[in-house]
Amino acid sequence: MIRLLVACLVFAFLVGGVAKADDGYRLWLRYDALPSRMIAVYRPRVAAVGVTGNSPTLNAIRSELVNGLTGLLGSAVPVASDINRDGVVVVGTPRSSTLIARLRWETQLAQLGPEGFRIRSVKLGGHSVTVIASEGELGALYGSFHFLRLIQTLQPVNRLDITQKPRVQLRMLDHWDNLDGSVERGYAGRSLWNWSALPDTVDPRLLDYARANASIGINGSLLNNVNANAQILTGEYLRKVAAVADVFRPYGVRVFLSARFSAPMELGGLKTADPFDPVVAAWWKKKADEIFQLIPDFGGFVVKANSEGQPGPRTYNRTHVDGANMLAAALAPHNGLVIWRAFVYDMKPGYDRAGAAYENLQPFDGKFAANVLLQVKNGPIDFQPREPFHPLFGGMPATQLMPEFQITQEYLGFSNHLVFLASMWREVLDSDTYAKGPGSTVAKVADGSLDSQRLTGIAGVANTGSDRNWTGHHFLQANWYAFGRLAWNPDLPSRQIAGEWIGMTLTNEPKAAGTIARIMLESHEAVVDYMTPLGLHHIMWGGHHYGPAPWWDKEPRADWNPVYYHRADDRGLGFDRTASGSNTVGQYHPPVRDRFAKLSTCPEAFLLWFHHVPWEHRMKSGRILWDELALHYQRGVDWVRATRTEWDALAGVIDAERHGEVAKKLAIQERDAIWWRDACVLYFQTFSKRPLPAGVEKPARTLAEYKEKSLTW
Ligand code: GCV
After folding, report:
1. Which atom of ligand 1 is nearest to the CA of 225?
2. Interior angle at CA 80, CA 78 and CA 81, nearest 5
């Protein structure tokens, strides 16, 4: 035991000191001192911070660099107003810095735009310095965070020549926060916005929220739930929103609000919210004027209309376009945007929910106003552990489509399961829609390059809350991080994102970092294995969506019940979406459609999504479907067990506080994975009527016991 302790201490010393207790609050912006050998490398390159000028953003840059570099290098890095030595980090724009103006980089910086940046190691006045420059102050801020990231992850900074600009314009976190402080599908505490204390008292935490977002390029924040309460648009609440916007502004985060379509009735006392009624349109115009008066850089409205009980234009026999364009007209004079959600699925007898959004919205391609973006979930159902890409991507070339991802893990084990979502999002972004032949990826729809869109955006439903560590599980901070990085550059590899986050947040020790990266990169597949393998979907417990309930058939709407989705019977399993079934596979472009539609070419990951497959169907492995399914469930459980062992072995590399908390979460994950496996194989076995294949453990309880009550979190 003593030998083990000594070994841990020696190891910890070698990787840069004994890991200190850490509650995770600082996210990836920890700025703890680097190992001394690295401090010696960086010190000559980072002798002082040269930020001149005094705007809120320039002040934010100066304080971030001084604090960050001082922390990382373990002693004060001062501010320098001129270059009288090597190693000054000069930051700003040609307007804010005479040194940068002297470089005559205007043309290059103009090409990068106000959010892009250039970082170069140059000689200025005979001294070796680093210049972080941009056309705009926000670009200089993003460049500064990039520079800090290089040092945090121990990259060389002596010969820098980096240019970057965001590929997507609007990079937005959507909070489903209610005005009473609860968070719909939130698993990390309460809302970060304390509405009763605002506007007089603003939680200092909001500044750290803004910093964290800016550090990964997020530039928009939707403050309230899309299941909206009209109250947010009252003068009283708008003043509170304005106070939040004031804190975010220096960090380039613009606020957006969910607008309840019936607000003119609820707040304005009108008899209708019909978008064609001039009084309604005038009410929205006046409201927009009022908002922009208080918040000049207000982003715009996000609207969930005629979906899951929300009001909308269809209530008045108008179309989605009629509703969106009416709001767009109110916001246009202020350059505000309307983000209209495509999450629409009216229940019709015999219909396929997976085809509903396409049927509802595709006919309106090209009809939305110039300041409208249509926000489309990554897959056609609802943020399932794995879905094929949404057929609207590539299906509406004349519409500005904005992918919506879910960072919060509604269907992925809440904040209890370690799942690195970059891999899942990568899979979607890399999907080829074939809209314009091969190479027409979802990433190119997102960045607008496929159809030369004027406006582009990506949204992620936030996983943040009032928990001290922000996301409830230390590892799930990585999903917030990954979302921002992918919104900035939708082509970034998952491995790179994981590597950056690990280095900044957990450890730079190569062996440990390698193990953690592998765990993260494998995690999504593992969770799919123990929850919904081979294209199964929506088999979670009704309402809260935690844990399995493939037997569930109690919801008032058929399409809220798992039995609607898996369609298990004595013959086989899966939803037939081919010509012999709902034929919604026909919403994809021909090569994709054909590949999905044929049993022999459909990727096994989506098999049960598109086909009703006989239990004895031969899979690529040579096994029959039933055996393969059961073995996937087992594989998921095996992965969690192996991960627990690997994590335990990292004690001493990671501080005890975070290590212990993650270990506890992994224990819950193992319990849940076993529960998922057992409940699902027992239930599906009532249809397949086959024995469990060798290698699959015997379930611990009976099916009746699993059905009796759901897993708790
Ligand atoms: C905000 C799913 C979730 C709802 C959510 C909805 C949406 O149905 O379960 O909580 O509502 O998606 O995206 O609007």
Report:
1. 1
2. 150
pTM score over 0.90? yes
Question: For ligand 1, atom 8, which residue shows the shortest CA distance?
Answer: 382
**Cα of 607 to ligand 1 centre, how many Å?**
25
Instruction: Report the pLDDT value the prediction gives residue 350, as an integer from 0 to 100.
Output: 83
Q: Alpha-carbon distance 540 to 382, whole Å?
A: 12
DSSP output for 392-438: TTTT-TTS-EEEEEE-S-TTTTTTTS---THHHHHHHHT-B--BTBT
Q: Locate the ligand 1 atom nearest the alpha carbon of residue 304 and give its number.
A: 14
Q: How far is the CA of 86 from the centre of ligand 1 (A)?
A: 54
Q: Which of 275, 273, 255, 274 is nearest to 265 (CA)?
A: 273
pLDDT, tens digit, 9 for 90 and up, residues 338-357: 999 999 998 788 899 999 99
Q: Is the peptide bond before 199 cis (omega within 30 degrees of 0)?
A: yes
Pocket test for ligand 1, best of 224, 303, 377, 382 (most atoms within 8 A of CB): 382
Query: Which of 175, 176, 387, 538 for mutating ligand 1's site (highest number of atoms within 8 Å of CB)?
Result: 176
In the reported structure, the alpha carbon of residue 410 is separated from the centroid of ligand 1 by a whole-number distance in angstroms of 9
Domain ranges of the chain: 2-164, 170-492, 529-575+612-708
DSSP 580: T
296 SS3 class: coil
Residue whose CA lies nearest to ligand 1 atom number 13: 343
Q: Whose CA is nearest to atom 12 of ligand 1?
A: 382
Q: Is 341 helix (H, G, I), strand (E, B) or coil?
A: strand
Q: What is the CA radius of gyration of the chain?
A: 26
- Which has the closest alpha carbon to 375: 456, 287, 262? 456
- 595-638 pLDDT, tens digit each: 999 999 999 999 999 999 999 999 999 999 999 999 999 999 99
| pLDDT tens profile 322-339 | 999 999 999 999 999 999
Question: How much is the pLDDT for 82?
Answer: 81
Name the amino acid, one letter, at 29. L
- Which protein residues touch ligand 1 with a CB less than 6 Å away? 176, 184-185, 225-227, 304, 308, 343, 382, 410
Residue 433 φ then ψ, to 5°: -80, -20
Task: Kindly give the distance from the C-alpha atom of residue 571 to the centroid of ligand 1, in angstroms, as a whole number.
Answer: 33
Segment 244-275, tens digit of pLDDT: 999 999 999 999 999 999 999 999 999 999 99
- Pick from 350, 346, 403: nearest CA to 374: 403
Tell me if domain 2-164 and domain 529-575+612-708 are identical in fold.
Answer: no
Ligand 1 atom nearest the C-alpha of 406 is 13
In terms of CATH architecture, what is 2-164? 2-Layer Sandwich (3.30)
Spatial contact of 304 and 258, defined as CB atoms under 8 Å apart:
yes
Residues 6+ apart with CB under 8 A from 514: none
Helix (H) or strand (E) holding 51: strand 48-51
Q: What would be the CATH architecture of the domain defined by 170-492? A: Alpha-Beta Barrel (3.20)
pLDDT tier, 81 (very low <50, low <70, confident <90, very high otherwise): confident
What is the overall mean pLDDT for the chain? Answer: 96
* DSSP letters for 639-657: HHHHHHHHHHTTBTTB-HH
Nearest to 8 by CA among 661, 677, 659, 649: 649
Residue type, 300: G
Rounded Cα distance, 435 and 690, in Å: 43
* pLDDT at residue 19, as a whole number: 58
> What are φ and ψ of residue 301, in 5° steps?
-105, 140
User: What fold, for 529-575+612-708?
Assistant: Alpha-d-glucuronidase, C-terminal Domain (3.90.1330)
Catalytically active residues are: 308, 382, 410
Residue 637: what pLDDT?
98
625 and 613 in contact (C-beta within 8 Å)? yes
Task: Kindly provide the b/e burial profile for residues 475-501, where b requires at least 16 CB atoms within 10 angstroms of the residue's own CB.
Answer: bbbbbbbbbbbbbbbbebebeebbbbb
| Residues 35-58: tens digit of each pLDDT | 999 999 999 999 999 999 999 999
